[in-house]
## 1
Amino acid sequence: MGALVESVSSSAGHTFGKPVREAIRLLEGLGVEGDAHMGVTVKHRSRVAVDPTQPNLRQVHLIHAELLEELAADGFAVGAGELGENVTTRGVDLLGLGRGAVLCLGPEARVEVTGLRNPCVQIDAFSPGLLKKVVGRGPGSGVVRRAGVMGVVLRGGRVEPGMAVEVLPPDGPHVPLERV
């Protein structure tokens, strides 16, 4: 089985989770049509408070379904969209991608990976103890973020479950993802 889109979600409001949809439409340079985080400039409320003019590097949030399964094995019931992601993938090592990798979602849509999601304490309000499962310490006391990746839409298009996902590595050397 190749890499694929397992689920898609969006929400017009600034809600923690996003309802699962039959399909979403990505809009070039903007994000997910009708989603609260759509736009050229940042829409995340804490980032807007700091500087509302900064570019929106978080237009699309992607999480790998394998993380949700791992969390379930640890006793956390987390479904697609419930951590605020727009696209749930299967068979893609999202966290291992380099900055600038491009995800081809189906025949049309293209998303450039900008960095790692930086999960916040709202995750523990959703399910106590969950934050420690998606953020921790790695070798050398570095922070390890596991709550998915963020990206910007290079080319728009319809995205729905079952579509193939192809990864195009960036030109040049691999640059590990950092939080955005």
Note: The first helix runs from residue 45 to 50.
## 2
Amino acid sequence: MSDFREGVEWRVAAAAVDYDAAVAEMEARAAAVQEGSAPELVWLLEHPPLYTEGTSADPAELVDPRFPVHRTGRGGRYTYHGPGQRVGYLVLDLSRRGRDVRCFVHALEGWVIDALGRIGITGYRIPGKVGIWTEDGGAEAKIGAIGVRVKRWVTLHGFSVNIAPDLSHFQGIVPCGIADLGVTSAATLGIDSSLETFDTALALGFPTFLAELDGSGTKRLEGAA
């Protein structure tokens, strides 16, 4: 299913998408966006159970490779993707949205935090630890991961949020290299949310997310003037 929001193609996959096929499609779309022959894209999907190995991954953190392991060009370490987890891939042209990677990552985190708030979960950042965190039983736990790549000012990859995955699947890795804090999900926190409900929450906050990026670009241009 696909439509347009704020001039960006908004696509939701109806079935789980093979990881390598998704990366190939992202790469092709990013090249087309850079050339100006295709619109920007937000692609919401699920993957079959798998682990991804980011550019900073430590092999010692792959504890039990019970699922396929895919090397990827995104930043970060090992992470898990699987059913019940909403993955969002963003192919956005930062050459016209501020050329500020830090602003992009910060805005992306804020967008996910906003969407979690709309379904009743208080998410937040932890200084020095990438991702989205929340409180689970009095302890901090990770509910969302961020992993991006920027190629010729076009973004690839994006975020994943645990709605109702099998959390035992995370035991095969040290998620994102953080061993002292756990992972959680909306279902574990007692939030009865479907992927579709979370998608709606993302859609509601999407204009604000883009405005933050575009506002950064405007400020930089004004500063240069």
Note: Confidence is low (pLDDT under 50) at residues 217-225.
## 3
Amino acid sequence: MKSILSIAFLLFANILFSQSFIPSIKNYSIEDYKADNQNWDIDVSNTGEVFVANNKGLLRFNGQSWELYEMPNKTILRSVFCDNDKIYTGSYEEFGFWKKNSFGKYVYTSLMNSFDSSKKVNNEQFWKILKFKDVIYFRSFARGIYTYNGKEIKYIENSQGVSNETIYENNLLLINRNQKIIKLEEGKLLSLNQNDYNLKDLEVVNLFADNNSLFYFTKKGKGYVLRNGKKTPLPKNLNLFLSKNILNKVSFYNRNKIAFGSIKKGIAIYDLLLNKTEYISKSDGLQNNTVLSFKNFLGNLWVALDNGIAQINVNTTMSFFKDNTGALGTVYDVEYFNNNYFLASNTGVYTFSKNNELTFIEGSEGQTWSLDVIEKDLIANHTNGSYIIKNNTFSQKLNDVGVFCTVNYKNIILQGTYYGVNYLKKTNGLWASKTVKNIPFLVDNIVFENEFTIWISHPHKGVYRVILNSDYSEAIKITSFGESKKLDQSKTEVFRINDEVIFSNGNKWFTFNKVKKKIEDYPNFIKGKNKNLIINKNEKWVIDREAQNSLILLNNKFEDSLQFNISSANERLVSKYEKVISKNDSIRILNLNDGFATFNIHKINFKQNNNLNPIVEKIYSPTNTFNTKNLNDLEIPYNDANFITIQTYLPFNYGANLEYILTGEINELNKVNNSKIILQNLKAGNYSLYLKTELGIDKTEKKLIDFKVLPPWYLSNFIKVLYLILLIIIVWLTYYYTNKRIKSQQLKLKKEYVKRTQERINKIEKENLKNEINSKKKELISSTASIIKRNEVILSLRNELRRLLEFSNNKIRTERLIKMSKEKIEDEKEWKVFENNFKKLHEDFFKKLIHKYPKLTTKDLKLCAYIKMGFSTKEIAPLMGITVRGVEIHRYRLRKKLNLDSNESIHNYLILFN
């Protein structure tokens, strides 16, 4: 099996890959821009915005995010042209322009209503738009050219079938249907004169001019560049490429380079000075080989493809070699040795010569971890052992165990192997290897602390400090730091920097204290996550994937001295095996998972655009959109501030990682994702928003906007005034009602006091009255009792007189005395006195009694009064001057008049009667 593989690789070694270095390519697929695959035309505005005519509409890229604007009638866009703040587009039976409104959205205005009704177009598609002398030109295939001066549309007569319009030395040149070059003057198409650039009567199929240089490609398949009256032909191989693969688009992207876009085989870039052509196709990383349009802008060649969009950084100092066959595999190390690149990969070792030929080295099949130049020999550290490479072959095998690395410290050469450490020594031109005893485990890295002390690392068990004997034959002391709490992550990397041993573990840095013999924190070194340290001889590099996809060269104070943007290579770096290799004083090499890249440390590979201010495109919430024309007094309602989106970008910085800083009532630092800053749950108050970016070594913070979040409606100034008024009203009402309540309480208390006082008075008066009544009653009873006694005496005397009347000597006198006694008893004066006193005690008694019983006589009333006073029958008889029997008869009659039953007491009835 091994012999079969050897034969296969031997055959493979004879295959030469004519792949070359290519510039950085950034592809955008339909998954990125969310539209259709075909992109017919492309242009860039003066603010760096990329506009693409896509099957689905107008695509716009601000460097951070893509946005699609569909045509009102959903037609395919065929052409696009940027003119200041207007973006002109052409489609089927339609052309017009787009312009950004005050809310950051591009709105379409059709120019079809500017047509003369007799000049309406049918079944026409507009494939090209350009501007010449303040007039916009729209060109279709069949009908020809229409012009727009800002007010009206005009048609250029006899322009049917023209193509490839271009501006050269203040002339608008075109190709007519006969493939002759013509020019447009004052609205008319004219043939060229004999003295017009010596182009008269040429048959051409493509024409393009830029920077006072004119390119034309003839019907016979030959291309020429005309500059300052001098004609320079293209080389034959390039002409053949353009003819065979159908030239479609041309662009000058600097004075001496021309880019050609083909239908079948991608792009060719021709250097006029070096007479050298570079080819970029799908095999070199382009998504598609059919170039429909491209635009050169600030060193970026924007390419509209039949499937996707590409950004080619033609001015970068970083160049890439990429093996698209997959045979090379992952490159773990690169050495530039004897004017050739040597590549160590997982499939073996390869050479890449200055003629761009990739050749496999015979016998190197399998994983090769690293390459080292030691004592003028190139050593390959292979899974089968270490080998000396000479004459592009593995000429000498140094040992039989897999080797990860070879380290040279003051001519002491050690190797980290699958089973420990080997000691290498070269004597009289011959290499010898021996195993260092007492290290029976895998070693993937070695760092010298001093001549006889080394640090070795195991990929899973941490690091060890090893003291070697004088002849490097054995380890006399091994101290494991794998159980150190500081080195708690599985993988620990060891470095030697400025005579110090440094450890990296879990994004933290440590050093070894030689006095205390312990590992300590190493502060203020490399902060942040996803930052890998790479030591290349005396250079210290940091790959920062988190912030700006940057490669940073540190000085001796561990400060940034140079910074390179490697975003185009970032995803292709070999994780955990990144290396920066020196080719010479200027050129450095990066190993990649599909090849390698080179860059010049004396040239920053992206332009400084720190003088540019970020642009706010849109500000919106789920329920509201804000005007972005005047952002000086931006006020955001409280409800909108719960979720507000600010869409922004930094002109001319494509794909740059941006961060925002929010200061104010809430302070926040976060990333800008897809050109959007999303702020949530903002409190009421004033805020400032800054855009932060890192360009080169400079770290800049640029103010984006100041804005104010209004308080909620219930805390607005108007509502606060209402609150104040309401508070005043409440205070007043509280005072009023409290005062009223106090007064009411006082009045109530006063009334209660008066009532109680009056009750007391009434009680006193009642008691006084009762006492008075009782007194008067007693007086009445007493006076009546005296009358009774007197009347009893008179009655007794009268009875005696009546009994003595028949025996009296003076009957007349006796009768007179009897009469006088009767008169005395029946004297009305005494009754009147009794009646008056009785009425004082029992007011209206007689009136009510007479009212109820009108048949009562005066005598009945007297009897009622005496009974009510409580006098007995015996006591009443003297008062009325009758006998007790007479009183009883009278009482009986009175009961009848009062309608009283025999069971009812007449005395009780009269007592209660009122």
Note: The CA atoms of residues 403 and 655 lie 40 Å apart.
